[in-house]
Amino acid sequence: MLIHTGEKSHRCEVCKKSFSVKSSLNKHILIHTGEKPYMCEVCKKSFTSRSNLKEHIHIQTRDKSHMCEVCKKSFSLKSSLNRHMFIHAGQKPYMCEVCNKSFSQKNNLNLHTLIHTGEKAHVCEVCKKSFNQKCNLNKHLLIHTGEKPYMCEVCKKLFSHKDNLNNHMLIHTGEKSHRCEVCKKSFSVKSSLNKHMLIHTGEKPYMCEVCKKSFTNKSNLKRHMLIHTVEKPHV
């Protein structure tokens, strides 16, 4: 009867979202804890809900008799194979009506159009931050759960995102592929090069809200702020 009355007496203590039945609350809590109790017996991948596991098993077990002769990837439908072949042929038949950028897959075009529409339908239940793609929301949730599934094989340091692990690995390899065209200094990640370029351009995008003094990087601004915040005893 709770469905008909609209009563939701079971409340999440983390994000305050309410549910009409306790079982729904229990399932919801798994988002915050990062727990994935439902595991695929074939590939050992885990899921937060039984329905997601069932969907995964269905994808794994269904007939895939249409195989790509180039990369050997298989598909259950001939139409899916035909769409996949655009990747190898270099064809990009799906074009954005706004910026004319082309894509080989329709779903990639759909994701791209969200940039122009500004639509962010995937909302974090914890902090209410919105994302235009579900995968980006899933990555973001790792911040709240504290989960760090990506481990460096060299020093065993853990990371919540694969991009962060990839950047970290450059420390061990010593690779510095991002080079300053002005002074020829090299950097392992593009963001470090971008920060370095401010030295040459003279740009100072970080401004103190108290005295309006500007700085080339955020760390210098933080050090400067201590002047305003640290108590100075009267001599």
TrEMBL record:
Sample GO molecular function, one term: zinc ion binding
Alphabetized UniProt keyword annotations: DNA-binding, Metal-binding, Nucleus, Repeat, Transcription, Transcription regulation, Zinc, Zinc-finger
Signal peptide stretch: none
Example of a GO cellular component annotation carried by this entry: nucleus
Localisation: Nucleus
Family matches, as InterPro entries: Znf_C2H2_sf, Znf_C2H2_type
C2H2-type domain boundaries: 10-37, 38-65, 66-93, 94-121, 122-149, 150-177, 178-205, 206-233
Main location per the UniProt record: nucleus
Family statement: Belongs to the krueppel C2H2-type zinc-finger protein family.
Functional summary from the UniProt entry: May be involved in transcriptional regulation.
This protein's name: Zinc finger protein 726
Provenance organism: Stegodyphus mimosarum (African social velvet spider)
Lineage of the organism: Eukaryota, Metazoa, Ecdysozoa, Arthropoda, Chelicerata
